[in-house]
Write a structure and sequence with these properties.
The structure holds two protein chains of two kinds. Helices cover 67% and strands 9% of the residues of chain A. Chain A is an alpha/beta fold. Chain B is of the alpha/beta class. In chain B, 46% of the residues lie in helices and 18% in strands. In chain B, β1 and β2 form a beta hairpin. Classes of the chains: A alpha/beta, B alpha/beta. At the A-B interface, α8 and α9 of A face α3 of B.
């Protein structure tokens, strides 16, 4: 029997026993899930109905060998949608794949009844069905992974934008509180926003506060020095503040050269120096 | 021949670079500038590069050389008006121009020179 014939037979079987397969499949799925509510049940039922309907059409038109073909477009779109929805709701990829794999049991029992007594044909049909559903299951995992990756990339970007504010402390004085590790991509963003702000405010001094930087290794130090050098080229001096005792030790042990840069233990100390440089003083009332 | 104008303001000289630099232009500028420093007994030089969107290693080196020459003739050089993108590029190229003083704009550069040469 050719694969084409078995595809047509499988398609006809699904269409003929649509209601039975659907009921069996949904019952099976509901048995697998622990949290259940009316809305989720309704959504599950809707997904199952749509998928089974499209599956029958695609198997007939596109065959079972190549699920990347055009006839499978609608099935792939639906699976992408289901998978993406589940990723956003926080399902694990195996839960999503199980959704597809669980159709096997329902299909197999229909095949067994339909092909009773024809051992060869049954084995053949079981194999093709199984292969097909495996492919579809793997596809959902791939899509799941992709949508998760997209979420991660988006969060990274948001984090990057959130964590690099440049604030004006006083006339001519800027502060740059750094939070999180400095890698090259972040250094670029930090540098750009600092330089833009220098142009915008005409500031002469920038205080880079590294209280929120967990560790300072040679690379982070190098990135800091780059930022300071760029600010200097624009005519602004930099002061590094918020150096924790631990970090001071690490810097010396690593042999990082911070000699050319003014460093202060706290932001307050750096601010006093900066005020003195722009010619301002702070006095307590009475 | 193409030349970069050198303007005198009190005992400061102002050089505004607005065109792309090439070797001969750079040589001419250095000739003219050293000549003017001696003739006008200038105490300070301002090099304004706010019109440049692109500064390569050649211009970077030219600027530091010019600053060194001026220093020998007892004139302070201040580089003013560098664009943020230019600053980032120079730092990435490893050209931090260590011997050159910098300021955000001409006004601040003049204030800086006014402070330093009176001492």
């Amino acid at each position: 029997m050719s694969t084409n014939e078995s595809a047509v037979r499988l398609s006809t079987l699904i269409q003929d026993h649509h209601a039975a397969i659907l009921a069996d499949w949904i019952a099976h799925l509901q048995g697998l899930t622990f949290r259940s509510n009316a809305a989720a049940d309704e959504q599950l039922r809707q997904h199952c109905t749509q998928l089974l309907g499209l599956l029958a059409v695609s198997i007939r038109d596109g065959g079972i060998d190549n699920i990347d073909g055009r006839a499978w477009d609608e099935v792939r779109d639906l699976l992408t949608e289901i998978s993406g929805e589940r990723a956003r709701q926080g399902s694990t990829p195996s839960e999503t794949a199980t959704f597809v794999f669980s159709l096997k049991q329902s299909l197999f029992s229909v095949l067994r009844t339909a092909l009773e007594g024809q051992a060869d044909a049954l084995a053949d049909a079981l194999w093709t069905t199984s292969t097909l559903l495996d492919k579809l299951g793997l596809f959902t995992i791939e899509v799941f992974q992709k949508s998760r990756d997209q979420i991660i990339v988006r969060q990274q970007q948001e984090l990057l934008e959130l964590s690099t504010p440049v604030v004006k402390l006083w006339e001519d004085i800027l502060a740059l509180p750094l939070i999180g590790t400095l890698d090259s991509a972040r250094t670029q963003v930090v540098m750009e926003s600092l330089l833009e702000k220098i142009v915008e405010t005409g500031a002469a001094i920038a205080i880079i506060d590294i209280t929120g930087v967990p560790t300072v290794d040679t690379l982070v130090a190098q990135h800091l020095m780059k930022t300071i050098a760029a600010a200097r080229l624009m005519g602004a001096d930099c002061i590094i503040s918020g150096i924790r005792p631990q970090i001071a030790q690490t810097i010396v042990h690593l042999g990082v050269n911070l000699e050319d840069v003014v460093t202060k233990a706290t932001l307050a100390d750096a601010f006093v120096i900066a005020l003195a440089r722009v010619g301002a003083t702070v006095t307590r009332k009475a | 021949m193409e030349r970069i104008p050198i303007l005198r303001i009190g005992d400061l000289l102002l050089v505004t670079i607005q065109v792309d630099m090439h070797d001969r232009l750079a040589m001419t500028l250095q000739d003219d500038l050293t000549e003017r420093i001696v003739r006008d007994s200038a105490k300070g030089v301002l090099i304004d590069i706010s019109a440049l969107d692109l500064v390569d290693s050649f211009i970077g080196r030219m600027i530091s050389n010019t600053a060194a020459m001026a220093r020998v003739l007892d004139a302070q050089t201040v580089l003013v008006g560098m664009q943020p993108a230019v600053a980032i590029t120079l730092v990435e190229l490893g050209l931090t121009l260590p011997g050159v003083k910098t300021a955000l704009n001409v006004e601040k550069g003049m204030a800086l020179l006014g402070k330093s040469y009176l001492r």
